[in-house]
Amino acid sequence: MFFQQTPPSAGGGTSNAEAMKSMGFDHLIHNFDALGWIVFVVLVVMSFSSWYFIIANAIRNSMVRNRADKVINGFWSNGSTQDAIRELEAQPKGEPFSKIALDAASAVAHHQQAAAGGGRLAESLSRSEFIDRALRQAVARESLRLEGGLTLLATVGSSAPFIGLLGTVWGIYHALIKISASGNASMEAVAGPVGEALIMTAFGLFTAIPAVLAYNFFNRSNRLTYAQFDEFAHDLHDFFATGARVEQK
User: Fold this and answer.
1) In this predicted model, what pLDDT tens digit does every residue of 143-171 receive, in sequence order?
2) Helices of type H across the chain
3) pTM, rounded to two decimals
4) Which of 79, 90, 114, 189 is the most exposed place for a label (fewest CB within 10 A)?
5) Whole-angstrom Cα distance, residue 169 to residue 247?
6) Around Cβ 193, how many Cβ atoms within 10 Å?
7) Distance separating alpha carbons of residues 163 and 136, to the nearest angstrom
């Protein structure tokens, strides 16, 4: 005896297709409960905040790198220290290398005034020690400014996937409660709520991935700038403490 397999009804196929179409972001927004809205708003704020610092740091780091050689070479190529200082003072407010050099020059002037007036500062700290302290403080300050926003990027990169996962877990739990209450476990009833919940995980990943990549990139970029800070600071110390720059072999 042969049995003829009955093809799936057109109505069932259409129903499943309609169910899959309901797995969208628009349906997700309309089915949010209180916790879903909290998770969604937190991820949106994280995403906008991280992109703000990504763009701001990219612009700032690009300007610092583009001006670094010009500022450093301009200082050493200037025949007069006073002219070099005036040129440094004309640099933009956020330019770090000029601020480091100006702090060193200010420390020299302050120490000379203290020594001329017979102050105790000149007795307790030598000219070299006073310049070294001023340069260390300047390098630390400018290094800290370069790190602005990195803590937020690290926080977003590490926490956004788990926040999105929380939204997914809660959404699936919420969907299962509705399915249990209605007694309907068809594809049409399950696909929409579960698919909408999974979107939260994807949203968390889309928020975290740019933050992680940017954090690693800016960390690498900042390390190179820190090395330039240290090299420039050592040369400034030698110049202001001895009156001459120690040339590198």
Assistant:
1) 999 988 899 999 999 999 999 998 888 87
2) 10-21, 25-30, 34-77, 81-89, 96-116, 120-124, 127-146, 150-182, 187-242
3) 0.75
4) 79
5) 63
6) 22
7) 40
Q: Kindly compute the dihedral angle of the four CA atoms of residues 228, 233, 239, 241, in this order, to the nearest 10 degrees.
A: -160
Token pair of 117, please?
Answer: 């007036």
Using CA of residue 209, residue 212, residue 216, residue 222, what is the dihedral sign? positive
Report angle CA 6, 10, 13 to the nearest 5 degrees.
100
CA distances from 212 to 47, 114, 206 (A): 12, 49, 11
Mean pLDDT of the chain: 79
Query: Position of tokens 């072999």?
Result: 249
Distance CA 244, CA 224 (A): 26
DSSP state of 249: -
Match 């020059």 to its residue by tokens. 105
Nearest to 139 by CA among 176, 172, 174, 102: 102
Cα gap 82→105, rounded to integer Å: 10
Q: Please say whether the beta carbons of 175 and 229 come within 8 A.
A: no
The one-letter code for the residue type at 192 is G
**Is 9 a residue whose pLDDT tops 50?**
no
The structure tokens 């301009």 sit at 74
